[in-house]
Amino acid sequence: MKAYDGMYIDGAWRPAAGPDVIEVVSPADEQVIATVPAGTVEDVDAAVRAARAALPAWAATPPAERAARLAALRDQLHARGDEIAATVTAELGAPEKLSRTVHAGVPVAVAGSYAELASTYSFEEKIGNSAVYHEPVGVVAAITPWNYPLHQIVAKAAPALAAGCTIVVKPAENTPLVARIFAECVHEAGVPAGVFNLVTGLGAVAGQALAEHPDVDLLSFTGSTAVGRRIGAIAAGMVKRVALELGGKSANVILPSADLARAVNVGVANVMSNSGQTCSAWTRMLVHRDRYDEAVELAAAAAAKYGDRIGPLVSARQRDRVRGYIEKGVAEGARLVAGGPEAPRPQGWYVSPTVLADVTPDMTVAQEEIFGPVLCVLRYEDEDDALRIANGTVYGLAGAVWAGDEAEAVAFARRMDTGQVDINGGRFNPLAPFGGYKQSGVGRELGVHGLTEYLQTKSLQF
């Protein structure tokens, strides 16, 4: 076990203000692998003050120089990819292949995209007799989740730095180790002192202090809708800008003309990735009644292949929560066709890849975010019924549509109340805006739309 010390504040690792520490526990074997400082209100205040002091010079830094620092950061992340992957596997429990390709690989691409955008985005424009300037919003507070611990930091920090903002990051207490590596990469990339700051700590202490700090101009939070509401209420009371990426209950709509086997297999893979701990996972599979039984059989067979291929859930609490949802689904009338609530291994916080059939739209498992390797299969009568079911939750983060004709799939997707839809298995695009409708959030991440979240506009009339 390694005991880490200090917070990254004003360009250096500084001792924490208090003595308390957070234990980082391996989800795979339930052993403590490290400790990090539990940040206090004093630590948060020091980080925000450093960010505020660094803001004028960084905001005035030419975009080309900000782009150069981001390109150097991208290179640092790439060079330490193996270490990043091993760290995510240790603290999150993600399988090694997923850690290498997604947890370590995607942040490199995202950081690189903002290095490019910082050098090409038009921060000034002419509109009639006005000059319009796109300026940094100021000091950003970023509170990030544990499920994609590095990606979520990069998806906030990279556009903030590209925009000319300074930032304080509070990572999830379950997965703080990769955040420390990121801070080291920022330092080695030559980002000036105070521009990026890192405070580890509990949400109820450090997170709350960061959200309530009067010198924070924008709150960017990724996590549950319940916590997002509290963050939004704090921001509203202080008239702060807010960006919220929250929960999801995304629908995977398989239209009758689709290649059923491919749609089901890709859909199951989507749900099982990262052990189901993905806010945008297609956790509701909607199938026409005429092909429903075949789809359930295919889904059960596909899920069975993931038994020894997915990692554990992040904590015992999360494991118990997911197992409770499976039990509730069965109690409300769902049919268990794969997996189940029983522990598949004697050690570690594992949940079996699970498929629930005969799920109806009013069931708890069809309405609430489970955040585990659990797929619900629902039947629909016709396209209007499928649309009603797909849009029938408080969420609207992501989704998928499958059809034999692409135009048919696009027409259906355009009617879905959700922020991002994959058509016939469309590939991930790090430049496409990501964010939700309804209670799935406010604002967008990634690409140019993610950059503009960190800008405010000023116009001069001549």
Descriptive keywords:
462 residues; 20% strand; globular; alpha/beta; 6-stranded mixed β-sheet; 15 helices
Please give the order of strands in the largest beta sheet: 15-16-17-14-13-18-19
- Which percent band covers the strand fraction? 15-25%
What is the count of DSSP helices, taking H or I runs of 4+ residues? Answer: 15
Query: How far is the N terminus from the C terminus?
Result: 64 Å
Quote the average pLDDT: 98
What does this structure look like?
The chain is an alpha/beta fold and 462 residues long. Helices cover 42% and strands 20% of the residues. The protein is built from 15 helices and 21 strands. The protein has helices at residues 41-60, 63-79, 81-92, 96-120, 149-163, 177-188, 203-212, 225-238, 260-272, 292-304, 316-331, 364-367, 383-390, 406-413, 447-452, and strands spanning 2-3, 7-9, 12-14, 21-25, 32-37, 124-127, 130-136, 139-143, 166-170, 196-198, 218-222, 241-245, 251-254, 284-288, 335-338, 354-357, 374-380, 399-402, 422-423, 441-442, 455-461. The strands form five sheets. A seven-stranded mixed β-sheet has the order 15-16-17-14-13-18-19, sandwiched between helices. Helix 1 (41-60) packs across helix 7 (203-212) and helix 2 runs antiparallel to helix 5 (149-163). The mean pLDDT is 98.
